[in-house]
Amino acid sequence: MPSPQQTPPQPRVPHDGRPVVCPTREDEVAATGSEVIGGPVGRRARLGTDPLTPVRVVVFVALGTFALGMVQKLPCYNWAWFRGAASQYTHACYSDIPHLFAARGFSDGLVPYFDRFSGDMQYLEYPVLTGAFMQVAAWLTPGGGDLQYREQMYWLVNAGMLLACTAVIAVCVARTHRRRPWDALLVALAPAFALTATINWDLLAIALTAAAMLMWSRGRALASGVLLGLATAAKLYPFLLLGPLLVLCWRAGKWRRFAAALLGAAGAWLVVNLPVMVLAPEGWKRFYVFSQERSVDFGSFWLVLTQRFGLDLRIETVNTTSSVLMLLACAGIAALALAAPRRPRFAQLAFLVVAAFILTNKVYSPQYVLWLIPLAALARPRWRAFLVWQACEVAYFLGIWMYLVYVTTEHKQGLPLDGYHVAIVLHLAGTLYLCALIVRDALRPERDPVRQDGSDDPSGGVLDGAEDVFTVGRAAREARKARVAQEAAREGRTAMAGAGGRADAPPV
Questions:
Q1: pTM score, two decimals?
Q2: Which Gene Ontology cellular component annotation is one that this UniProt entry carries (predicted)?
Q3: Domain-wise residue ranges, the chain
Q4: Backbone angles phi, psi at 313, to 5 degrees
């Protein structure tokens, strides 16, 4: 029994007073998986009490998953990065980070964008904020020892900084849907997250994007835009989220909030990029020139077309066709946003537009899956579909390394070309499968897992519960029918009142 001076910890509930949603009560896969830790939550469980609040649990699990990913890289850390290409592919522990420490001049003290290094690239081919992240890690890397030791230390320093990004992602995803913090376990336990988190520097942009979505869900449009602009300064894809915000704000008539987000994004991007753009224009534009000049590469359906069917596609043709396909996909997503019977949720459209970019792009690096994992947790928090998609991504992760083993070893060990094409198709099919489920949820809102408890758009901020002011197609027809019915009811009450009857009296 607690003493009179002590009070038992009280469960935390969202601001609307409704209880936190427990996945083990509504998701069969989550309920089955919970048997490992004691089974589904009971009716008398005290949820969200200190010190094990949902957000803290999610963060601890995410950090543990990240640590497991570091352990998976141990063979490369110890020796495989430094003994030829095939070894790091055989152990599926490749990372760009140690290799670019020397290849991009960080080991020699060169400054990104300002100093030219030897080789075809000449300047760093990453956006400015990612380049700053890489430079800070280089400053923190110990200077003693040989190059191999310094590459190891550089990877460790970057891993520590990316670990902080992981904690930010976990907190932001857990807090975006106030009543569904446990959905962030989808991020924290994602197998592809552990395998790809330290391949490159993508987690910086993902953390900023997750923070931007959290700010939008709290109604802070300007702060959301600033964070989105910073994320775009670290990686190109986050600016795509402005598209879903545009059409959703159009449908809800929230133009001022969208304008605030857009101005914040543009201003933040300029603040970061303008100094480098002016002082080192050749180095600054290298990322954008490289993106245009880059040929068809690993993981894309373009690679299957060229290798499987022998198509000789020029870079200009691929760039143009890819852009057209992306624009068509965006047009379809906009039509879905404006014509769905109920306004789709922000996270749903965000997932669809980023997935469209990935599917139509001319390259798919294994770590690109990280872009979609937090969006998937917010867009469709169901474990079965999520794990199916993750299985496809893990298959691709293993497939690309085994294919590289095949092409880099003398005895052609590993996965041949046909097998690698199967891995690419699995990746494409898994992503399309999740997209199809999200589109179905948008067209049939009663099937949406997030809306089954009566919620509207927990990540929508000012869009949550807002009335529609502009719709097309089916949504417009339904709105017209509703207005006609309301007007008829109003006229009927007026007529009864004019005849001396009571508007609320029942018919005789």
A1: 0.90
A2: plasma membrane
A3: 49-451
A4: -95, 125
